[in-house]
Write a structure and sequence with these properties.
529 residues; Chitinase A, domain 3; elongated; 3 domains; alpha+beta; 14 helices; Trigger factor, domain 2
């Protein structure tokens, strides 16, 4: 629970991790046992595997997943199922007269009214004050012997908040259990000051609910597929790329600049009739194949081949429209290039190329390159088919969403955009204009993303697509390979992060659902043109 100041009142946030509310990931018993007490992090990116942590769950409020488990446990034990009509409950946490009314206000919302009689508030406050007196020392008194009046004077506000927290937490739990609710987000409760003497506590709050989804057809969907192949030209192009990637850059020395070489140089543009340069750049990386503004590539290459460190070359230029200095565009002038560093590029040996693709022969290298290209193209085709199927399923399953989650997603997207715009040092008016222009798109993307998450979960439940500890271990190993580290180091880093288990779970679950949809679809392969 979190208390926020709001004018003369308090806003009590019944704090539940939004990620765990948004998606109840199907977890296998193996995963549950092996991962108890240690969070699993998501796939990462910066420095590749380090990602900003999500908000942790705080307070003593039971998670919605646990509340749903308790509901299912009651059903399993043969307790009478509750109806969907408004509910009234009795005792709360050992106190009499507490009433909790639950009413489905909308498809994804439940309205909860909580009533606590003044006598019950007094009883709860008395118990909490007594417990507080036993735990805290008051100067001049032995432990547990301080007068009640002194305890209340010193801890009065804390006692009031603890009383409110007790009834609000139990009210939420009882509403979820008796109303058979599936919360989608943490409710916020607008609470006035603690009721005065003889006054009852009457408050109400809204619980955003998960959508109720009835799955239609998800298997055997017809979709167009495209056959993939690899041409000899693609293999040759990939081989040339492999050679460039494994080439060594060395100082050119007395040999000077070669056709495949490169240089770091200083360039200076001067408009005809002017004495001072209109543009100077140092540390420019150029090659005979990459030319500066206003010079033909053929002329540039012919004139700079053989250049050595310290040499200079001068060119007549007609400054183009894309030139950085607007005033100089369209004018004639000169370009001076000074060579500060000159390098030659030494191609790899066949043995080095073989080692790069883990083969021992030229024919094996060719086949390995062909197989990698085919694997990449097939993966891209699989992703395209999966996207087509997902778009169709999204269109075939209309349902309402909890608006509070949509709002949170939109707010998060716009906050990220604002941060990026501020880094560009744009003025406040421009930033607000950009944010307003992007708001509609952010809402549309947020709705689509949330809808996809809920559908993925329903499909996973229906098809028993469970996440296991091995799924996470494989992901750790993949993260480690991408970042040249060990799975143990990656896992150690993520064990220190909080609130990330569902983030990774959503990613892994999406992959499982995507694969299931594609593998169960009726793919009509169209031959290439």
């Amino acid at each position: 629970m979190r208390w926020l100041g709001c004018g003369s009142s308090l806003v009590c946030v019944l704090q539940l991790n939004p990620s765990s509310l948004a998606l109840s990931i199907p977890i296998s018993p193996v995963f549950s046992d092996s991962c108890k007490g240690r969070p699993w992090p998501p796939r990462a990116q910066a420095p590749s595997y380090k990602r900003r942590a999500g908000r942790p769950t705080t307070g003593s409020i039971p998670s919605p997943v646990r509340l749903l488990q308790r509901r299912d446990e009651r059903r399993t034990m043969g307790q009478k199922a509750h109806s969907r009509s408004p509910k009234t409950t009795g005792s709360q946490g050992g106190f009499q007269g507490v009433e909790v009314h639950v009413e489905k206000a909308a498809p994804c919302s439940a309205q909860v009214r909580l009533h606590v009689p003044s006598a019950t508030l007094i009883q709860a406050r008395s118990q909490i004050t007594s417990n507080l007196g036993k735990r805290f020392r008051v100067k001049g008194f032995r432990p547990g012997k301080a007068p009640r009046e002194m305890i209340e004077k010193q801890f009065g506000k804390d006692i009031d908040q603890e009383v409110m927290q007790h009834f609000l937490e139990h009210g939420l739990q009882k509403a979820v259990e008796d109303g058979e609710l599936a919360p989608a987000a943490a409710p916020r409760v607008q609470v006035a000051d603690f009721p005065g003497a003889g006054e009852d506590l009457n408050t109400e709050f809204e619980i955003p609910l998960r959508p109720e989804i009835e799955l239609g057809q998800i298997e055997g969907l017809q979709v167009e597929g495209r056959s993939v192949g690899v041409s000899d030209e693609e293999v040759e192009s990939a081989l040339e790329d492999l050679k460039r990637q494994n080439s060594r850059v060395e100082a050119a020395g007395d040999e000077g600049l070669e056709a495949e070489g490169m240089m770091l140089c200083q360039i200076s543009y001067v408009v005809d009739g002017e004495s001072e340069p209109c543009l100077e750049r140092e540390g420019m990386r150029l090659s005979p194949k990459t030319t500066p503004w206003g010079v033909l590539q053929e002329d540039f290459e012919k004139k700079i081949l053989g250049a050595k460190v310290g040499d200079e070359r001068e060119f007549s230029v007609e400054i183009p429209d894309e030139f950085p200095v607007e005033e100089a565009r369209g004018k004639k002038g000169s370009l001076k290039v000074r060579f500060d560093e000159v390098y030659k590029v030494t191609p790899p040996t066949n043995e080095e190329l073989h080692s790069a693709v883990e083969v021992t022969t030229d024919s094996g290298m060719t086949e390995a390159i062909r197989a990698r290209i085919l694997d990449y193209k097939q993966g891209a085709e699989n992703h395209r088919v999966e996207n087509t199927l997902i778009e169709r399923i999204l269109g075939d399953h209309p349902f309402d969403l909890p608006e509070v989650l949509v709002g949170d997603q939109v707010e998060g997207r716009l906050a990220e955009l604002r941060e990026n715009l501020e880094k560009e040092e744009l003025d406040a008016e421009t930033i607000e204009e950009r944010l307003n222009a992007e708001k509609g798109g952010a809402e549309e993307s947020s709705r689509r993303g949330l809808k996809a998450i809920y559908l993925f979960e329903e499909i996973a439940k229906k098809q028993s697509l469970l996440l296991k500890a091995q799924d996470f271990e494989v992901e750790f190993a993949a993260i480690a390979r991408r970042n040249n580290t060990t799975p143990q180091e990656v896992q150690s880093y993520y064990k220190d992060q909080k609130g990330l288990v569902n983030q990774l779970g959503i990613e892994l679950l999406e992959r499982k659902v995507r694969s299931f949809l594609r593998e169960s679809a009726d793919i009509q392969v169209v031959p290439p043109e």
